[in-house]
Amino acid sequence: MKTIYKVAIPIAIIAVAVASAFVYLYSTAEQTVTLNGAGATFPFPLIDKWAAEYHKIKPNVQINYQGIGSGGGIQQHTEKTVHFAASDAPLTEAQAEKAPNTLHIPITIGGVVPIYNLPGVPKGLKFTGKILADIYLGKITKWNDPRLTAINPGISLPDQAIVVVRRSDGSGTTFIWTSYLSNVSPEWKETVGRGTSVNWPTGLGGKGNDGVAALVQQTPYSIGYVEFTYAKKNNLAYGCVQNAAGEFIEPSIESFSKAAEYAALTLPRGDESWSKVSIVDSLAGNKQASGAYPITSFSYILVYKELNVLPNMDRATAKALVDFFWWAVHDGQNYAADLYYVPLPSSVVAHNEETIRLITFNGQQLRG
Amino acid sequence: MMSEMRILRKTSLSSFGLKVKSLLHPKNPLKGDHVFKLISILFALSIFLILGLMVYELVKGSWLSIQTFGLKFIVGTTWDPAVSRVFGALPLILGTLVTSAIALLIGVPISLGAGLALSEYLPKKFGFAVSFLVELLAAVPSVIYGLWGIYVLIPFLRDHVYPYLQSVFGFIPPFSGSIYGGGVLTGGIVLAIMIIPTVSAVMRDLFSAVPNSQREAIIALGATKWETVKTIISYARSGVIGAIILGLGRAVGETMAITMVIGNRFHIWPSSLFDSWYTMAAIIANELLEATYDLYISALINVGLVLLFVALVINILARLIVWRALRLTRGIVRE
Lengths: 368, 335
Prior knowledge:
The structure holds two protein chains of two kinds. Chain A contains 14 helices and 14 strands. By secondary structure, chain A is of the alpha/beta class. In chain A, a hairpin with a 2-residue loop joins strand 13 (360-361) and strand 14. In chain A, helix 5 (129-137) packs across helix 7 and helix 13 (315-329) packs antiparallel against helix 14. The N and C termini of chain A lie far apart (66 Å). The relative contact order of chain A is 0.16. The mean pLDDT of chain A is 89. Chain B is mainly α. Chain B has a single domain (69-329), classed as MetI-like fold, CATH 1.10.3720. In chain B, 75% of the residues lie in helices and 1% in strands. In chain B, a hairpin with a 5-residue loop joins strand 1 and strand 2. The model of chain B is unreliable at 1-18 and 331-335 (pLDDT under 50). Classes of the chains: A alpha/beta, B mainly alpha.
């Protein structure tokens, strides 16, 4: 009798434990949804914040986002290994062909600003696009070049060589910067062009926004370009840039937002080709765009219009994904400013609502 | 004795069941050895498989670039992903070789001195402590060397060392030109610091391995300490060359640290030692993530293939030299 108890009691305990574990796992497995995303590093801090905040509201939704670069994100989107990707640039025609029916959802706005290290000169030095292009072409080599002193009266610029700093790694920031330089300088367009990395005529290369910021901080008489966030975070002096309307615009959340509003007037439908969308390009030559900072860009989330093309997709996951997007473009925007991101203007939010309504699972709309 | 062992085996194996029994059958006690031998051989062959797969993948990945540029890729001097989409790797190959050569010029004398001091001059206990620290340096991740390069070494060199160098040697071209801090020489110095631990540890082992009979013989002939040391170096010279080439192998493949300090500028030849340049490993680390079209990605993988080839040649050289060293010592009476 005793031996039977010795065996039976542990077996009973184990059986109950295993059964309850199964019940627990089964019940949570039914509810917990994991959304996987990958792509650009620029929106990473924002998406990461969203993931944490959204998990508080909807504890059953877990969002994993990996900042592996726009290129890597687009590749994973094309291979259908993530639920959504993020990219600093819209898909090109060739990329869109490989990932048909991709929707573009602008989620935040970034501005690229010229930063400089000039002992004794505060922030707000004025630059025109032509001057920036010629500095980066190696044609303007001194800080007291007559073209710089002419538009900066009252500031004594030193007779020192300009140390040009740019990115060494491929990046969306470089793409926006070189797009702007291509628009304002025909010579830049023909010899260097626009790209995530280009054949730089001059300059020191720093790795990442951090690397450029560090190089400029440490090198007297240098000039560089970074995402606005990094200029703010590192307390670097940044310049004003002339827009097509002829105004010198100080980089700020307001002037970036203004730029996005002008671009929003001509945005294509979410499921049309976005390859030509560029705030930088839409502002080039737009003399009406008063108050808009010219080197501004959207950062996008890429997602398939029909979610059943993804492997292992079910309705619950699809619904959770769409609900998350809806929250991100509305309530999620409240977290942007604290992290120096630019909240989307209401016109862009309205445009995104239309795009999110296009997302379906097995042909059924997920958000009315 | 034999029968005792058999009994032992039988009793201890009875609890393992049939499978083990058939493997280590008492009638064939060597069967286990055969199995072990087979597994070991398989593991050894897997190294060929891994290298083969690596070469296959690299060639496959760079096929588009090989088709487009052919051998022109190796002699090309343009890297233009944006406008003309032409890629050539010659400046990268030169940059890699020159920075590695500078690293050897600085690192080898220091390593040689350190290795000799540890094996010949310092008291055993102290030498043990120092060699422990030296080997610890080899375990520091390269990104740490890079960060230290940016925040400590570059400002120091820019403000104190390079202006002095320029004031003394400025009349010859390699020491003229603007000083930014980062650049070819800084890259070489960081690489030197990174290879010193490995190279000096190998050298210490080499010198310690020289038989004491050699030292006793030369001292008996009336040699001074310095003459003894010279004999020891010449005794171990083949091994020393092997150690240097191992260091070169590390310098050639180094990525993170060099990317962070060299300035990453693509041009055929820098105007001075203070100018910025580029290396093969650095351009892959920099551009692969955001490479936006197939030919671009393929060209970067092609750089990887060239890098593997250069590293392979260096390692084969090192092997040949080490083999020669082994053949030399085989004929000599060992302690």
